[in-house]
């Protein structure tokens, strides 16, 4: 491919191209939780999106190879937690494969509908799973908000260039 003035050199679609582009996209950081057969499960997500105000609905993506997928694939309800900039370690724990995500370092409790709810987050929601839509090697989970709390203190945690960062003014 040849360079295009003002656009650089285009690359053909590939997983690496998509990853490279989205490393440049700053995204809010959430942790999604669910009750699994063997206990609570959860993972860090930057794919959280507001879908509808009426009814209140959101979506997130999860890989079908993720350790949390078996629980999320059958869960009736999930927890959605927006992390604060003070929670970089928590975000990293829930992003790391094989980590003890609900170990002693993670403050949480069983919330409504048996969903694990993390302490000290900016905001949390309990949602009823409405659909799981196939999307390549992932599923897009559509979930309707049941209840939540938007009043946690602090500023949002962001993910950019492969790192967790605080919001700068």
Automatic annotation (TrEMBL):
Pfam families: Flavin_Reduct. Transmembrane segments: none annotated. Keywords: Oxidoreductase. It is an enzyme of class 1 (oxidoreductase). InterPro entries: Flavin_Rdtase-like_dom, NADH-dep_flavin_reductase, Split_barrel_FMN-bd. One of its GO terms (molecular function) is oxidoreductase activity. Coiled coil: none annotated. Its EC number is 1.-.-.-. The keyword Acetylation does not apply. The keyword Coiled coil does not apply. Residues 22-166 form the Flavin reductase like domain. It comes from the Bacteria. PANTHER family: FLAVIN REDUCTASE, FMN REDUCTASE (NADH) RUTF. This is Flavin reductase family protein. It comes from Streptomyces cellulosae.
